[in-house]
Amino acid sequence: MDIAEVAERAHVAASTLRYYEKKGLIKPSGRNGLRRTYAPSVLDTLALIALGQSAGLSLDEIGAMFTPDGGTAIDRAILLAKAEEIEALAKRLKAMSEGLRHAAACPAPSHAECPKFQRLLKAATSGAIERSLRR
């Protein structure tokens, strides 16, 4: 497949493919005139790259999961660490969402008069919220 076909099928720009090649993530199988050509298996590699990126992995982290022969050697410890990082972020976002919902619906005349909001402010300034989210 030439670079234009791969770009279309993988829904990425040809410049992205050239960048991935420069980073060592993919390799062309040859050239057809001036155009790069790729083996059909490059689509699987690109899908793995897209999945890794959607999970928040850097291209360097993704690149470390490829063997020199084009296979994969996925580091499960990296995946576990990323999953824990995502879970911590989800907890933090949930707590923030709940705090915002309370502030929006609080019946107190002002947020300064809301005991729950004041407790949240004190917890935020003391670092208690961040410490609880790390657990």
Question: How does this model look, in words?
Answer:
With 135 residues, the chain is mainly alpha-helical. The protein has 7 helices and 2 strands. A two-stranded antiparallel ribbon has the order 1-2. Helix 5 packs antiparallel against helix 7.
Write a compact overview of the structure shown.
This protein has helices at residues 3-10, 14-22, 42-54, 59-63, 76-105, 115-126, 128-134, and strands spanning 30-32, 35-37. With 135 residues, the protein is mainly alpha-helical.
Computed Rg = 23 Å
According to DSSP, the number of beta strands is: 2
Low-confidence segments, given as residue ranges, are none
Query: In order across it, which strands form the biggest sheet?
Result: 1-2
Instruction: Estimate percent helicity.
Output: 55-70%
Tell me the β content: under 5%
Provide a count of the helices.
Answer: 7
Taking the sheet with the most strands, its summary is:
2 strands, antiparallel
Average pLDDT across residues?
Answer: 87
User: Gap between N and C termini, in Å?
Assistant: 49 Å
Sheet/helix structural class: mainly alpha
Q: Which geometry do the CA atoms define?
A: elongated
* SSE arrangement, N to C: HHEEHHHHH
